[in-house]
């Protein structure tokens, strides 16, 4: 029965039409109304730069007929007097999933691998590429959600299907209650993208760099698709078609803004980017993208920090983000970045106003705030002709409010959508607040006090004198009707119930019936006497707006000012030159303009700062040939046996604290490698540990490109994975290489002949680079059989192996490596962790070195990289390698195998000033890195570190006090759960998209 | 009369054993000490913080007879080893290790250190200790001569035993059987997980409390059972707890966080037990409490990353020094088994970051023996104790100078060859031959 009633109600509302045509039949008589309203005497905010005092708004049907001061109201309009009230354009949310079905990821068995699309139809191979999704085909209004959004002031939203990497086309709709047909503002607002594969059942991509590679490949595929006749592919066809409309990218955080923008620039697109509100952390880089942004108003809650032991879990980054997030919008405005604000991601739509006001308190101007929720979203959605301001001919989407929209305590009374009224708070009732003389038949005079929000919601009864009494009363009002109930406890005992109505509003007079506890009834009247003194709400003690400084990187050991390059003369040290001069006693090293100016004895250097290094040792910075720090979103793209298309360059994370920790161990250059989950992994990235700089600035300029290959248990997935992906034996590993290189050669040949008619394949491009000696292999390897195998494959297919990394059985095939000029980068003493290292020995380095191989020790581990100097020391322990040679294992030799020995790896005039000052012989367990320079910048200084730790403690103490204050003043808080430090090694597998989805559900 | 003394010059004689191409299978445990031996001229690092320059170490029947300073040499008919300019150290002790309980980490068939179940007080590591493992020989050659082979997993993991690393079988290896019961203090995850669990922090905390309640009643019932005399029904788990309550067996509790450490100590105190705390990452935050309760701390893995992003990057290096300098009995440990050959360098690291070198040595010798209640027989070079020590050409705490030339376990001159040396020789010889 209830259901039927509801259905009838809906049908009825749907048939209340303005004078417009419809294809929909009506059950019963048509109820077409003129829909003409005149809103008079209001302060009308036409747009962010024009406000009309005492003006009139004429609405006819769903459109604005006129706006202006001194307009005469034609006949036939319903006049609504809004004296003292405000009219604003309704807000627009450019980023919403309103009216779309929930998408859920289907969990699947761990022993299952899904290589290609499970979607039926002539679509693309990967389900994450779904440009064929049109919101217009799947949207249906959701009246509950619409109501919530309207209450927050929104009149229209852009609906995005947030599923997949290419997500198809969004649509803008109003939040009206009507048939879906009447809601569309624009059926194709933008093509949408993200790095999140969403519900896709395919394994690929598992990582962020995989998502990037897949999107790039899709651009190339769609270009090729237009030129080919072999294949019909709806996904590619749609993708190509969608290139002329605005392009939206959902990226989470400034780093992903930069990543998305880079893809955009590659293909001539300027994405409009939805981010997560932390752009203030690298505002200059974000601005440089030139992208317009869509920014949420989700601010972290303060943490419960009462318990100091628990509070230790909270990082400086988390604390500072809590403090600074509300100032993000202001920072964007100040930087001149164009941005829209979205309610997306808020726990409750009502938080939107709390948070936007908080943003204003933190420096966002009201003008910008209004633009960011009206004109800017309208413009980026291409619906400025319809919504976003109050002008003749536009759709009548507007708000009636008690005051300036952004003022604390402002009440939104009504939200009109397409000329249809939605009441948020009642406007038609007078403000009843005040003190009244209350006279009830048969009762001594009383005083009635009405206070509270929305013109009165709380009542109290009082009488002074001998028969004094004081009690609260139940108070409800419904339009002009008021009911009050209270118990005086004596004379009479029991509840007196009043039912009255507003008789006159000036002065306020309420009259009506009174029902007494004894069952008798009488009359009552309440006459306005004076304004009620509301106990003024204690002005919330404004938590100090003073903020700590922005630091780079944003977190522990960040600096407000990145250390500067210095001209330094290091005097009287034991200098390990790694050059023919060998180890010099009492020698000097002069750093100038980021380069080594001179190495020698008794150097005099004009204005250079002198560091007395008597008793200390000075060396070139350590170079780690095999590292997985400073990455994000996974360092393995192991869903396919070949992933040469992915690039670590795309996912460099400049904020990783391990950069700082390794500087503290004397590391200056790290080769960041793809993991070893598959035979042909991704392209690696060489970085310098320039702590505090942005990701692009970490990259080692002018270095040759490398790629990670791998052999053995990891690529066979002996110890993890579904075991369904080829190969699972060392025999299959060989054929993976043979097949890939064979195909790459054919690809190269056909490309030479047919040029651009050949589908550009990013994976094969990388292999062709290897064949042309433009990209170099570092191959993860363990046992002698597989090492031998790859050497044979390389010989037969005509490519070179630059380095075997790990190469724990290198000592068994050192002669073959030597003959092929292959370098070896191994562990000093690891063994026994897998079956393939059952015969790994710590003498491996020594033997390879003695045979004449360029030999290095690497880390593959964020911890070990902190003491690679000690690992080099183990070459002395195991095999008596001469100290000078042992030291080269972690400096000059890795530089050679990375082709950067002309720039780094030894102390020689003209080379980069990557220099470490050690407290003792660097091969000794007792040595500490006291200063580490990269390009002459002292990024690590053991004394400054102590100061940094202290100032960090002070800053955290300040933030903790601020959180405690904020909690006292009633802000909500969260339990102190820290952000786990993320560490990668060769075998780390992670599912980037699954994590994104998880974190969204947790909040 | 020194001149009458019959001397045997064994200069590096034992290391020549490496020249004979043994296969690992042929590295036999050494024979019982037959002759009394005097090692002369060495710098003796006693293990208790003292150093004896130009000392003489006299040992017979597997025991240390005397340690004499100032170049004095006994007159008896002894075998003599000239170790002048060299260093003598007590055998290093690897504590809380799964050495001998596993061979290859990734091969399940070789994993014998973690039984299923949460309350495994009846589980004993000694019976699974594989004296034929290839790993111990690779430790001996760096000076590690003793190990506390320890079960893991669950809440109560079972009993460890102290073994020496040159044995025919586990009976032979045992120095102290069931020296300590090991348990892990239940903790609540501190981090927002990357795992699938969406369990709230509150629920997780409740779960931890429930586990602690269970643990408390396990101990309470086990204690009552121990006092019962003859129980009607034998409970093997409770039987195994008896020596823990009498103090015959130590209780090692793994706890890292400040609060967990305090909770674990207070828990044990309730049952009149003074526990040894292992892990102990945040022990430095609660030093007065630990001192007040006379707690021995086994510091895990100085070569570790800090737990929190914001922590002093060198805190793991400094931790043991901070605790030891505050007057606590500190033992150093490392995770794993093959990794134990780096144990000496952990003590070196702790020296670099603030602890006196001889005190750092104590953390891997005498302090460890004390923690296991084995210091009456081992852990230092003192008369009456086992003659378990080694001679190194240089400072054994630094990999640059660690050169173990001879080692003795209970007086037996052990073979310092190992699989790695053999493979080194095999292939070095091959390349040398090809060069000719």
Automatic annotation (TrEMBL), chain A:
GO molecular function, one term: hydrolase activity, acting on carbon-nitrogen (but not peptide) bonds
Entry keywords, A to Z: Hydrolase, Signal
The UniProt record lists the keyword Heme: no
Residues of the signal peptide: 1-19
Annotated Amidohydrolase-related domain residues: 314-401, 837-933
InterPro entries: Amidohydro-rel (IPR006680), Metal-dep_hydrolase_composite (IPR011059), Metal_Hydrolase (IPR032466), Metallo-dep_Hydrolase (IPR051781)
CDD domains named in the record: Met_dep_hydrolase_C
Coiled-coil regions listed: none
Presence of the UniProt keyword Signal in the record: yes
PANTHER family: ALPHA-D-RIBOSE 1-METHYLPHOSPHONATE 5-TRIPHOSPHATE DIPHOSPHATASE
Protein name as it appears in the record: Imidazolonepropionase-like amidohydrolase
